[in-house]
Write a structure and sequence with these properties.
- Helices cover 62% and strands 0% of the residues.
- The longest helix is centred in the N-terminal third of the chain and has 22 residues.
- Helix 4 crosses helix 6.
- By secondary structure, it is mostly helical.
- The protein has a domain of 106 residues.
């Protein structure tokens, strides 16, 4: 076998190996890899709808455009305790089941009533979701570059400054 054919076949095999994991991924699953919680594509769509309702599009991008739902999913998967992860999933399922036929405006009113309540899986879910979504928004590239203009280096040093007493 000549060398050129061997190199060509090695590249074809390497491409197939790189493509294989995406083909083996279960259909209907979340678009990002989650290790501790199991979410479906419909769950991800519901979280995207909630992110859009929580941070709507104004002069700044919406929660959906900033992919806050993916940030929340990853943070809950990596940073929350197993108990909070279970509460998150149960509360999300309960809220999703209750709001399947609701319009975004009706979902917004049900969310505002949730904020007034003290207990329940839905309340705990929304509290976790809201805190993580706000964290994701404040740490997003858009906010850091356009809203909170961060100066990496301190301003110039002024040694002799006259103070008015």
């Amino acid at each position: 076998m000549n060398r050129r054919t061997l190199v060509k076949q090695l590249f074809i095999i390497a491409g197939g190996i790189a493509l294989l994991p995406s083909c083996l991924r279960e259909q209907g699953g979340a678009s990002i890899v989650l290790k501790n919680i199991k979410l479906s594509a419909t769950d991800e769509d519901f979280l995207a709808k909630l992110a859009e309702i929580l941070i709507p599009k104004t002069d700044s991008p919406s929660g959906l455009e900033l992919n806050l739902h993916l940030f929340v999913m990853k943070m809950v998967d990596d940073c929350e305790s197993p108990e909070n992860q279970q509460v998150f999933v149960k509360g999300m399922q309960a809220l999703k089941d209750n709001s399947e036929s609701q319009t975004p405006e009706e979902l917004l009113t049900s969310i505002t009533t949730l904020e007034g309540q003290k207990e329940g899986d839905e309340v705990a879910f929304f509290k976790i979701f809201k805190n993580r979504a706000i964290q994701g928004y404040l740490n997003s590239e858009y906010v850091m570059k356009n809203k909170l203009i961060y100066k990496l280096i301190p301003g110039p040093y002024q040694a002799a400054v006259k103070l008015k007493a």
